[in-house]
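Following up on my earlier thread - several people asked me to post the actual chain instead of describing it. Fair enough. Here it is, all 476 residues.
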Amino acid sequence: MPSQTLALTQSQRLQMVLAPQLRQSLEMLQLPILELRALIQQELEQNPTIEEKLNDTERVEIEPGSGETEETSEMDFDKEYEALAALDEEWRDYFFQDARSTPYSEEQAEKRQFLLDSIPQKESLQEHLIGQLRMSGLTDEDQVVGELIIGSINDDGYLTNTLEHLAETTGMDLQHLQDVLMMVQEFHPTGIGATDLRECLLIQLERFGKGETLAADVVRDHLEALAARKIPDIAKALKVTPEDVETAGRIIGTLDPRPGSAFTAETAAYVLPEIVVQRVDGEYVIVLNDDQLPHVRISRQYRRLLEDPSTKPEVRNYIQERIRSGVFLIKSIHQRQNTINRIAAEIVKTQKDFLDHGVSHLKPLTMAEVARVVGVHETTVSRAVSGKYMKTPKGVFELKYFFTTGIRTSNGNQVSNKTVKDMIANMVAAEDASNPLSDQEIMEKLRAEGIKIARRTIAKYRLILRIPPSHMRKKY
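Reply from S.P.:
Thanks for posting it. Predicted structure:
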């Protein structure tokens, strides 16, 4: 058996490696505008050679050096600095600032900060309940028990621990816990402190004076059957008509299954469209919304230090490296905006009928098709549209919304799958509630429109649209 040894050897091989600057450029392309703003502000804090322009309104644009490649790490700094010095003593970024606009002043910054500081903190469900507990007039001992119970209520308003478990772990009297829980269940919002959905709905019906109605009987004994829309079975069991069960079902539908959700401290999600499409003289015009991005330039002070013969070599090298990083940041922003603009232009060109008439005229479009026209790789398009939004005359849409596969029609054309989903939703909205359309009937209607589609695809689209099956949509 040959012996095994460890040895150190050298070998040559070719391997593709992304340069750090190129990797940063791709990351910037993928970032939404608000995250890009945070990245630029972070760079402003870390790189002393770049600064934000607050009130400069001259219009000068950087022109990339000729023959420049993506291997930014090998950039010839002397050529870059000559181009930089040739500008009219000011380094301008890609973005154009309207000379008629009001400069961003310190007073405006203070007003904005005051507005942000004035946003009220939302009251939590537990705080809301504790406040009512303090005003309930209960004894100090009952207050302690009430706080224990409220601490066991989740954000949906349900009691997560059983009273038996609380009694066992705390040593409190079970009957005492039950009495205080009944007091807590009288608090706002109605239905709070229930152990399950059935109890939550029954508490609400009792508070609304419907504790002895058919709706309460349905909730108490036939809630699962109601969810499955087994109306005839419920009517037979309760010896009433299906119409009576339908009426009770509508009453139950007005109740809140998650009474504590109104107090859930969820952060609202805001989107900021990066592209604004406007109709001007019958044509659609694309405007990049870059007002939220800081306008950056190379600091004049550090350029002077670089020109000063008395500057120490180590300081000069540091400034050169920092300016090189700033130059790449500005060019990356320029490239990002240019790429997004070209992709948006192709989307608007293809989806002009959608902008005119709506979803029914959305055309099939793939990222590969846009990539071929724009002259970039398909993955670049995917990065560019990720998390980006477009404001159009028809509303605000994520850029990915406009990329859909096609379904072939009988005349050889293709329609977008979103158009087909919209047709299905319209068919269901217009159907006879007493005789809703089955998936087979929807498929036949679509085929009558020239759209060949399988029944299982209809079922899949229906689930995506959150449309229940026909037997659950039936009204008696």
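The CA atoms of residues 28 and 36 lie 7 Å apart. That should answer part of your original question.
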